[in-house]
Amino acid sequence: MGNPDTAHWSKRPQLSDEAADYLRALIMSGELAPGESVRAELIAEMLGMSATPVREALKALRVEGFLTLQPRRGFQVADLTAQDIQDLFTVQALVAGELVARAARNCTPDDVADLQAIHADLAKAAAGGDTEALESLNHRFHKEINRLGRSPKILWVLGLLTRYVPRMFYGTIPGWPQSTIDGHGAILEAVVAGDPEAARAAMNAHLMKSGSLLASHFAERTRATAPAAEGPTVLNA
Predict the structure, then answer these.
(1) Closest of 180, 196, 179 to residue 142, by C-alpha
(2) Fewest CB atoms within 10 A around its CB: which of 82, 88, 93, 163?
(3) Distance CA 209, CA 14 (A)
């Protein structure tokens, strides 16, 4: 049996990362509006973990600019605009475009078959209204494309960008499932054709459209929740 203290510390970064990812998704999707309070104890209860890793996540999100720390009020969601979200996707599109261009040069027939299988499963999930599977398959498709770019350094940079983009809640955004199917189809067509510049253009169009949909959803959500931000919510009750 390992040292209990060592085991404890080895789990903490994973739990704090999980909490940070969850809160980023809530903020970026507009589920948590700017100005809302965020209490570690309530988040911990929602995620089924202790408050300690959640507090670490809150501190990390403050450094990233997602939260502010107000005297006597604690952590609050920082100002975020729809344009901020669109800007994140614009930068992501530039980096992801380079990776998919390289993937178009590198793909083998087996690689193409794997991508086509993921795309087919994604279409089935969308048709069946399985948003959880849809979000998972979307992530898997992009992860595989990025891997095929075979550039660890560019992939590392993209990882820094995508940590700010939620993987959850996409399936509930109007227009996103069909946009994903169409975008992935265009990307796949260019990759199959071995056309790097067409693949780059398809990825750019896909991510810019995704950013636009999320930004619009965020704007609508924050308009709807703004009047209630001063009152009690599930996170600041």
Answers:
(1) 180
(2) 163
(3) 32
For residue 132, the model assigns a pLDDT of: 87
Residue 67 DSSP symbol: E
The tens digit of pLDDT for each residue in 184-224 reads 999 999 999 999 999 999 999 999 999 999 888 888 877 76
pLDDT at 160: 86
User: How much is the pLDDT for 173?
Assistant: 81
Longest dimension (CA), the chain: 60
Between CA 74 and CA 76 the distance in angstroms is 7
49: left (phi over 0), alpha (psi -120 to 50) or beta: beta
Q: What are phi and psi of 57, to 5 degrees?
A: -65, -40
Contact 99, 149 (CB under 8 A): yes
Report the C-alpha gap between 200 and 96 in whole angstroms. Answer: 8
User: Count of CB atoms within 10 A of residue 33's CB?
Assistant: 21
> Can you give the pLDDT at residue 223?
76
For residue 13, is pLDDT > 80? no
CA dihedral 33, 38, 43, 45 (to 10 degrees): -120
Q: Identify the H or E element spanning 75.
A: strand 74-77
Q: How many residues does the chain have?
A: 237
116: CB partners within 8 A, 6+ apart:
188
C-alpha span between 77 and 35 (Å, rounded) = 5
